[in-house]
Amino acid sequence: MLAFHAPALADDAAIAMKVEADHPGATIDRNIFGQFAEHLGHGIYGGVWVGKDSPIPNVRGIRTDVVSALKAIHVPNVRWPGGCFADEYHWRDGIGPQSGRVETTNTNWGGAPEPNSFGTDEYMDFIHQIGADAYVSLNVGSGTVKEAADWLAYMTAPATTTAGKERAANGHPQPYTVKYVGLGNESWSCGGAMTATYYTDRMKRFARFVNNYNPAQAPDGKNAMQRIAVGPGGPETADYTDQVMKSWSKHDWAWSIEGLSLHSYTTGGWPPSYASTGFDQNAYARLVKETLGMDKLISDNSAVMDKYDPKKQVPLVVDEWGVWLAPTPGTNPGFLIQQNSMRDAIIAALNINIFARHADRVRMTNIAQMVNVLQSMILTDGPKMVLTPTYYIFKMYVPFQDATFVPVQFDAGSYRQGDIDLPRVDGIAARDKAGHLWLAVTNVDPNRTASIAATIEGASARSVKGQVLTAPNVNSVNSFDAPNTVVPRAITGKVDGSRVTLDLPAKSVAVVRLD
Predict the structure, then answer these.
(1) Which pTM value belongs to this model?
(2) What is the per-residue pLDDT across 235-248, written as a single tens digit (0 to 9) for each?
(3) Which GO terms describe its biological process (predicted)?
(4) HEC-encoded secondary structure of 140-168
């Protein structure tokens, strides 16, 4: 691996940081690095599922290369089957012999044929292969309580029951572990255009009657299933937060929830028109500025939740986030195909940093989406696969999974592009379970290097080393022909007692361990 050690510009003063290692904060739940896989475009078919008879290497129809790549970033959970698709999904269409699966049309995404080849058992096989937990989105929009309850029985009931016998006949005698269930999706829009009051009343029935029968997931145990209600998608649906949390504060033994969702994308306006390739620094700056609004959105909704839940028992689950850009020219616009650039990697790092700062309330998120759709980890084309810049951010941040948040104080400085003023740098720190101290720093400025001078309070360091992700330009991408344009390189810093210096290239994200 090549080492990268960029000099700071002579006229740039060092940016002072104070890492308060002696003031530990909340745990950064590993679930904030969750993924999302909807039946959308090539996200499932071609991206995850190729079929058992495919010449592309696979295990029971699931791509081997994709599984290996996802295992390397320690994916904690995968949300499935949607998204908007979830509220038109009928689980019985996707179980049993492949020859008997029901073929439908995906009306949400491009009118594509939906063969239902990838159903419940294939999804469970997939998450088992990558080592992730299940996050199943229930059909609250067009489905019934009984349909959802029967689905959970199919997945979790003992093989002595009728539902369990059916699952066993399909190849899995043991109950599945279903750690998370979503009680609908965007019920204020594609999930049924419901008012907050109507949704809340409907949601209670699903929360009451959809049971998990797996004995390893007793309701009062540490592995109990978590029910996540639909929350807002922006200021215009903010009443969802208030209505759902007000109802939760008055709930009795018969029902409850263990999470409230929030959806927020970086789009640059609706419909998304910003290009994923060939853009200039003005487009870069505008999307970075919009991304930073995630902090206020979380703060505003957390304040509402605090009114009803001051002890923060109910997590805020940002289960759709990421950069939503204009579809790649020449592709089906309903497939949401876009490239993934250094800009998107920086935006991913900024979002993760925001989530970490709100770790007391934000304990789970899901980037949209995992493969071939929106801000994905992986792109595939037939047998070819390429890892995106965003993938490498998730891989570099693995040490932050379940680590203890450590406050970092710093003067962010300023990066100005046209009429847009942005903080020049951003950073977070954490201590992992082994006791190692980690620092993640993002240099937002695409033109100037940044010299970081960090003082560590309550600890000392002997060495500073890790990885940095940068690129020739903010619009640089990894392609099938040039897969290594944006990849991490080794980076080292200097140590003088409790003072650490680290020189960052322009437009970069670094994650280093302070030994």
Answers:
(1) 0.96
(2) 999 999 999 999 99
(3) L-arabinose metabolic process; polysaccharide catabolic process
(4) CCCCCHHHHHHHHHHHHCCCCCHHHHHHH
